[in-house]
Protein 1
Amino acid sequence: MPLLLQNMVLFNIRVDCRNAVKYAQLSGDTRLEAACYIHLANALCFGIPVSPGREAFLPKALALFQRAVELSQNGGTHFLRSKSLAEYGLALAAAGNEYEANRYRDQAFEIYFGGRSVKNRPILRAISAQGY
């Protein structure tokens, strides 16, 4: 896809995500708001090709992921809580903060799999070793 077209598509995605966040804020549904923040942060963090310009969006994306984590911890489903933590961990890894990324990823696994330890489950250990 040509770069200009790719930038136009990304711009439209970001605008749609921002509008969704505004709607969610007006509706008062914190779960919907957290999910919208996750999508907007993903568009900023991972929708931009790896290039010098991507680093400029990482601080904003990290702040949006952090807001999604805060919202999901206050009444979100266990899936939403684990998703927000996992996505935030991925963004931290993209920003080069591996220690914090692993901490958030481990929290996401613990919430999603009901407190079962990754070390005691072969499949979880395999997934964890691959960095997912």
Note: Residues 3-130 form a domain with the Serine Threonine Protein Phosphatase 5, Tetratricopeptide repeat fold (CATH 1.25.40.10).
Protein 2
Amino acid sequence: MRGARCSRAASRGDSDRPRRCRAKPGLGPLAGINAALHCAAARSLDAVLTAPCDTPSLPPDIAERLTAAVPAVFVESMPVTGLWPAAFAAALDAYARSNDGSVRGWGREVEALPYILDEILPNVNSLADLNRLSGHFP
């Protein structure tokens, strides 16, 4: 994601960093988004780019596409893939206390716009899904 539109980045997979930003149980994907927004805010980062772990193939320029769109945006066909301002952390806390954990619902709550991709994103939820994709990766 680093480039012309990103001067600093943090990765949740950073193994040398203390694990201070923990997800809240029971929120599904919103738990990860919530933890990431709080981590980003604590590190004075502007936004969080999210992607689901069961989507192995995102367009290489997805970060550029989403950052060029609007301050808050999610991929229409895969709403866990999105760009969320770190300033939304407290609003997501409030939403999580009173709603069903829907990422699409959260997007509506903060007036994030859906971004329509031309590509179909693969979603791996079973061994059959994984087997269908087996020839697509080196």
Note: The chain has one domain: 29-136.
